[in-house]
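<discrete_fold_record>
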Amino acid sequence: QLHDGATGGHLGVHKTLEKVRERFYWTNLKEDVKTWCKNCVTCAGANGPIRKKKAPMRQYNVGAPFERIAIDVAGPFPVTDNGNKFILVVMDYFSKWVEAYALPNQEAITIADVIVKELVSRFGVPHELHSDQG
């Protein structure tokens, strides 16, 4: 009644605890009020979902070309005459060099084949490959 009743107002743990202490006392009063407020469905809906903290942005130091590359797949796009509808984009972190390859699908075997035949054969194996796994 003092938290979620007609005059309660869903005011949170501290204000509800003050209102309860004005009128009542029992052992474990504080813990009971905390539990009641934390389990309140109305308050949980109003506060929204709990957001995960994101990792801080940081600068990567890369010492040589194609030491660290980033890859991403874009699409689907309209099918080309060759049957391709995706694009594999590869960027070198050191030089910012970008290459793009047309793909018929985004299966792992297709992407791995392009990386080995087009990149590794020309630039060597990168130490790091950054991907959003998409």
Remarks:
- The chain is about 35% helix and 20% strand.
- The chain has two domains: 1-54, 68-131.
- The mean pLDDT is 83.
- Residues 108-123 form the longest helix (16 residues).
